[in-house]
Specification:
The chain is an alpha+beta fold. It has five helices and seven strands, in the order E-H-H-E-E-H-H-E-E-E-H-E. Strands 6-5-4-7 form a four-stranded antiparallel sheet. Strands 1-3-2 form a three-stranded antiparallel sheet. Strand 5 and strand 6 form a beta hairpin.
């Protein structure tokens, strides 16, 4: 049966290794000492924990949106009515267009943290490479 080190489980869960250690220490997530003395998690136990949703942000459980990108605001452009806000969330760049009022109320500025919550239909843009005049 596959086993995972704490750091590997953290990567799969999208949390820090310290968070996984706290879950193990509190008994929320079972782990054993491997041959090297380090704590390891059985793949089946980790899968059950991930399927249970116990590791998710409580806000996520009260929303139908499942795509959440927590990151750092890297760019904000405001005009009189609208604002464009760019968030870098790991390797993902997310840009949101919103009212200026909303951006102001949220206090969005470069260097602040924010979470982009994406709930939308599928949008695909393709080109054939041909340009028609």
């Amino acid at each position: 049966m596959p086993t995972f080190r704490i750091s590997e489980a953290a990567d799969l869960l999208g949390v820090s290794a310290d968070t996984v250690r706290r879950w193990v220490d509190s008994g929320r997530l079972p782990a054993d000492r491997g041959g090297s003395g380090h704590r390891v998690l059985e793949g089946a136990d980790l899968a059950a924990f991930m399927s249970s949703g116990d590791h998710e942000d409580p806000a996520r459980r009260t929303s139908s949106a499942r795509n959440r990108f927590r990151g750092l605001v890297t760019h904000v452009v405001r005009d009189r009515v609208m604002a464009s806000v760019e968030i870098q969330a790991g390797p993902h760049r997310v840009v949101s267009l919103m009212s200026r009022e909303a951006a102001d109320e949220l206090g969005l500025e470069v260097g602040s943290t924010a979470t982009a919550v994406v709930k939308s239909t599928n949008v695909v843009i393709e080109t054939t490479g041909d340009r028609h005049a």
